Amino acid sequence: MDRTLLEALVFQRDHNVDGNVYKVCQCDFAYHSDRIEGSTLTHDQTVQIFDSETFSGTATVDDIVEARNHFRAFDHVLDTWDRSLSPDYLCAMHRILKSDTTDAANPVMSVGEFKKFSNVIGGRCL
Which domains does the chain have, with CATH numbers? Predict the structure, then answer.
């Protein structure tokens, strides 16, 4: 990661600077990543959760929790940017992303571990 960008992101986070690249990265990353997975949150709702840790509108509890978890995961990357990617690091990131969700309570989902079962679509394994 570019040291200048990293330093700017950490500074903006640590000093609660509003209207900055840190906030844009946090909100866009969470919104688009969750949206790919089927989240019902709008971009404005994601920003609201980031800004005030409140929510208005309609969405599932898991969608709200996962957005907050994305914010934590992004911060974790900023704080551990110099660590090598490893299976343990990736599993820790997955644990952060899925913490306190219904998936975390489901042993079939293997939160914080590599998946144990193949994906199935229309009765066919992928």
Answer: 3-82 (1.10.3290.10)
